[in-house]
Amino acid sequence: MTTRLFSDFSPSGKDAWEQQAEKELKGRLKTLSDWTIGADLHLDPYLTHSKIEPERMAAMQACQKKIPGWQNVPVVKFSEPRKANVAMRHALEYGADAIMLDLANVNIAHCEFPKLLHGIRLSDTAVYFQTDENAVDVFKEISKNAGYYLKGGIASDPIAKWMRTGKFFEDNLRAIVALLDETRNMREFRAYMVDGRLFHNNGANPVQELAMVLSEVVNYIDLLTDKGVSPLIALNRALFSFSIGPEFLSEIAKLRAFRFLLSKISDAYQLPRALCTPFIQAQTSSFYNADAAPYTNMIRASSEAMSAVMGGCNVLTVTPYDHPFQEPADFSERIARNVSSILVHESALAYVADPAAGSYMLEKMSLEMADKAWELFLEMEDKGGFVKCFESGFIQNQLNVSLAQKVKDLGEGKVMIGVNKFIEDADPIYLKDNNDNSNPHLLMDQNLPKCFRASALTAIKP
Hints:
By secondary structure, the protein is of the alpha/beta class. It is 44% helix and 10% strand. The chain has helices spanning 2-7, 14-24, 54-62, 81-93, 113-116, 135-142, 158-165, 170-182, 197-200, 206-226, 231-236, 248-268, 296-311, 330-345, 360-382, 386-392, 394-411, and strands at 35-36, 42-43, 71-72, 75-77, 99-102, 127-130, 152-154, 189-190, 192-195, 238-244, 279-284, 315-317, 442-443, 459-460.
């Protein structure tokens, strides 16, 4: 039966598909736009097997996550110890697997960790402490009476903090080295973060995000190995964080391309690929949220979350739809957690390690994106590496050009639901501007569309 079925159908090439599409679209085939990813990366709107290189596709697939599933990790913002404890325990009871605890601008002396972590065993439940405080000091507090093996980590990126504030990172780097030594037997504890969200929230396209994160990773590995840390530990004990935007296919390809590129870095340090296990957090984007029609953010976050898990994230953080303009309500937090639960239990995506494997479009897009990002990464290396590129303004110039293109696209009619199309007839809800413009190290363009309001920065300069 199988032989007869396939013998009745001859293979179809791209020309045959184009002829059929031309017929179905009644002469409007040319209205299909290509996929534009960055300034010089364009892909046809459809691909066939003839455009795929089997060896390269196999190389891309070999670098992807091997174990299916991900952690559902909502953000809980610290206000006071007992309130934050209740919020964390509630989230864990109703769908969350772990917690990202936001301790931004919080002095750890005010955290009262026994109250904050009451009823939460860090040996069983991962908590990622998002803070700019000294990593060793935070660890000493959370490890008191917590057992010998902790999960979670310190979600702190000292280099990103330097870019935001101008405060140099040497002291925090020494703290990371000390923390890596303290936690050397805790394989599920992340000692630092490489925060790619900073670039996304400053207008980067996916190619720029990949190149800049890769350059920062190399910078960290070099700095840490200079202080006696093995490159394998430096790579495996980082938390790589990305924002996921609304371009569904390109965001899937972005995470797959990152794992592929990271394998090239591990090869350069002569690390066994089988032992390199990058741990990726994906967070739905705040950059593209609508304020005039905030409920559309639910739909946008659902699409972004699906991109994240199909791209192979280890940790998924879905931000509540109302978080840009108010403290999230119980309803919005529950909906955000449930997005991940639906993807796990109703889509079966948690049963497949690499759901995108074999898609001609996604395989081609992943490879092309990785190639362009590698070119930009090498250009940054030729200019002296990540820190030199920031000090010279190269990174900022790249981001400003990309951001200007996004603003131009939006102004020329690129559809964003609830932003420039299908806007509700209601008074807009304006976002709070939490950016600190007092530091000359930073620059924020006040003329940006309201949807382009970042949680960190909107543009940066040296």
